[in-house]
User: Fold this.
Amino acid sequence: MLIRSCFLLGLMAVLAGCSLEQELSRTPRTAVEQVLLTQAVNQALTNLTVQLPAGVNVELDATGLESDRSRLRMTNSDLGSLNSPNRDILYIRDTVAAELGRRGYLVRARDMESPYLVRVMAESFGTMQGITFFGMPPVQSLLIPFALPELTLYKQQHQSGYARLHLDIYDNRTGEFLGSSATLVGRTFYNQYTMLFFLTWNRTDIDAPP
Assistant:
């Protein structure tokens, strides 16, 4: 009976599965996380359309929700500051500036006269990570003088990047609200797989993954 009970306990441990979802980006960010985020922004901007006269001068700033780790309100006066508490909004703003520049618009600093103000509203920007595991996790026992390593039958470590934003346009002289772009969404993923202890591979939609 004791042997059967031990066998059943061992079988349950081997067949145990677990899933973990973590919605905050890890800090410091890995190269994979950084590429997930940057390419999510680029993907979102592929669908950008703005109702502005061709070649017009625009002033650009950006804002986003505050987090528990940093202040996410940035304007052009912060450009180039090495002491900014957070650079996510700066990166989003500058990526939008580059995209507008490629479309023929002239992006100006705050101290220069521009007929239009374009405000980037960063609604969401981050990564999510999760693990799906099938096998036996590592075991450290006080009864035996050694530890058992993780025995992986199947393991999926999945990460995804997400960017959601839109642009609000104002008359820079009167402050009149002129309109908004459509909501722009970009998604990316990077998944790593392990099967039967040592067979590993990955799947991703990002270009030139690390």
User: Anything to note?
Assistant: The chain has one domain: 19-204. The mean pLDDT is 80. The first strand starts at residue 17 and ends at 22. The helical segments are 2-14, 31-45, 88-102.
